[in-house]
Amino acid sequence: MAIMECAALTKRFGAVKALDGVSLAVQPGRVVGLLGPNGSGKTTLIKLANGLLTPTGGELKIMGMKPGSETKALVSYLPDKEYLPEWMNAKQLMDFYGDFYSDFDRERAREMLARLGVDEKRRFKQLSKGTREKVQLILVMSRQAKLYLLDEPIGGVDPATRDFILDTIIRNYNPEAAVVISTHLIADVEQVLDDVIFVREGHVLLQSTVDEIRAREGKSVDQYFREVFKC
Amino acid sequence: MLGKLLKHEFRATGRILLPIYGAVIALAALANVSIRLLDRELSPILRFLFVLVLVCFVLGMILAGVMTAWMMIKRFYTNLLKDEGYLMHTLPVSVHALVWSKMIAALCWFVMTFLVVWLSIGLTVLIQNNTNLGELLAELPSWHEIRQVLREMGIRGGDITLLLGETAMAILLGGVMTCLHFYAAMSLGHMFSENKLLLSVVFFVLISIMFSFFTTGYGFYIHWDSLDSAETVAGGIRVVQGFIGKALLMEGIQAAVLYLATVLGLKKGLNLA
């Protein structure tokens, strides 16, 4: 059974179609790159999967269920912005996650925070931008979720932080779960991807495994992406 | 999950409001001392300082009230409609639980602020050198005496209980409506992609206008002359009970409409930037 499935999914904002008849499936155990230029509909798709938007048409299901309280317990989501209350410290944030998510592994989170040298009593807003992004990712990846939806996890961070983020994702995700990474920085994530979905102007252009692309096109996903999305 | 939401809501709001309460009570104690000392011969500077303490105490009480209302609005806005909404709306809880947690916490803080303000006033005014609290309390009539007087006026204990119950309900519903008025306006205003705050203000005004029609309609619906025609105090109380009962019904309907608008706005129209 697919962990996430969309059928003819459409989302309109007034006259603008952010997603137009998108159909795709994400299987368990796969790391999927949701790839496309800015404004292609990646964030809209992820927001729909999290129940943060309501579809205009079509259907989206997580483990066979429409997005709601039940699916939110199964999905671990990293938005593309700083979303944690600034006044909280890491300890309070772990309390918060532990209270609401039964799959939250506090020990694992503490271990990663300690490795990062984050003082648990320091407020979120007192941390550097890079550290705040890492703390967010640590909380998200410390859950034993069925589906991880990571929206632009490496956007706007330095190369060292980028490595830390990708390493954290690969080391910590539940092997029976699926990971969807939305990004336009393909070269940086290509090494960790099993599958890719190309999105342009609200349409799915391609859904394939990384190996298939390399074998069929004789080039890397990054090179193929540049060719497909050439301006 | 509502309990957990409330726990975190009280933690988030308490860190702001509890220090304010502490400051108001401390200022009340200082104001108490100031009032005592202002009776004496003092230098102009000391007199100015003691008056300043009294002014700060009054401002502190006003600040407590304003901050309680501000926190009610701000928590809903920043926690559910701004970036923190990405955290709150992806928790495995219902939208109902989110709205109730905000509303219950806000109502509790309104009650707390009311109690703190009255406690502070009590601390400042009542416990003075020339005020004997024991004597003051002893002068108040006992419950038995009150009942005796009421019985002589033909008023039954049940009437008073019902009237007090209705009044308490009216105050509670009034608080609920105040919260929901802001929540519904913000929730509807944030369904749009742009000018969210401006549209929230527009919705707030529109709701106010719409409900003022209800209230006017209610005024016509009530037969005020029935109060004049009541021949006894007991009869008058029963008429007032009827008025409050109808007002409660109207408030209840308005609160239900606002709650529905809030929940629908968050469920169907959520559009986080």
Helix and strand arrangement:
The complex is a heterodimer of chains A (231) and B (273).
Chain A: E1 4-13, E2 16-26, E3 31-35, H1 42-49, E4 57-62, H2 69-72, E5 75-78, H3 90-100, H4 106-116, H5 129-141, E6 147-151, H6 159-172, E7 178-183, H7 186-189, E8 195-200, E9 203-209, H8 210-217, H9 221-228
Parallel strand pairs in A: 3-7, 3-8, 5-6, 6-7
Antiparallel strand pairs in A: 1-2, 1-4, 8-9
Helix pairs in contact in A: 3-4, 4-5, 5-6
Chain B: H1 2-38, H2 44-81, H3 85-88, H4 95-126, H5 133-139, H6 143-152, H7 157-189, H8 196-221, H9 225-229, H10 233-268
Helix-residue proportion of chain B? over 70%
Number of domains of chain B: 2
- Find the structural class of chain B using helix and strand composition: mainly alpha
- Rg of chain B from C-alpha positions? 24 Å
**% residues in beta strands of chain A:** 25-35%
State the CATH superfamily name of chain A.
P-loop containing nucleotide triphosphate hydrolases
The residue-averaged pLDDT of chain A reads 90
Q: How many strands appear in the DSSP assignment of chain B?
A: 0
Rg of chain A, Å, rounded:
17 Å
Greatest interface: A-B, 26 and 26 residues
